[in-house]
Amino acid sequence: MNSIPTTALGLAESGLPVLPLRADKRPFGNCRACADNACGGRPNMATPGPCVCPWPCHGWAAATTDPAVVTSPQWTAAWRRARAIGYHPGGAGVTVVDLDNPAAVAWARENLPPTRTVVTTRGEHWIYRGAMRSVNGVRPGVDLKSLMSYARWLGPGTGTPADLPDVVRALANKEPAAARPAPRTVTVPAPAGGGECRHRSPAYLERGIAMAEQRITDATSAIHITVYRTFLAVLSAHGRCGCLTEAHIGRLFTAAQAKGESPRHCTVAWSNAATTLGM
Question: Which of 2, 39, 76, 214 is deepest in the core (most CB within 10 A)?
Fold first, then answer.
């Protein structure tokens, strides 16, 4: 029996904003009405709560403490498909220092004050009382998850949450300790196309690619899913008519690698997007 809906309801009733996560630990995609944020998103997108539609749309912003929403037919259907529970740390008034490997955990033990600790599959979550902006890659293997982000619920953990220390807040203002390598050129064949071109002019395609690059560059969290969704949007708009070239794809891959994505992740994300669209 799936215990996820029961656990999620209990967490929501205790005041933790929850949302369902897929097997890949990511939120479910938006419904058709909200696809590509066509609905405009939730007002401000700064606090958790349901979208105007009844589905768990808009990722972290869907997180809710309302039992009526958590147990609604649409959310119940999502919980049946869910493989994990996510929550919005900022909405709960906490910050999660996500330590992704043993080296990051060792660093935290030497440099951060003790607080509540939750063991993860690869490292630990250190949870502090207080919210702040979320930033990925503040140092090798360390992400900060709080406002406008989500974390996976892995249990209450051990220890007492400490107040958010200045040393953690300061991490958000620092460049990553290790410089990322220069993006490596990856060649991916452009779609063969063959359909009717819907572009009003070459400038339309250029503007679309530039906007996609900017969307990736501006991402401050959920880099993997942002890259995938951007690739999906580009292929959906420009992948069937033959106008999309390897140079265009290279620009997108370069932007993604500058945000820390590996060449392999870029290739996999592009392939998955093409498969989703039946290309």
Answer: 39
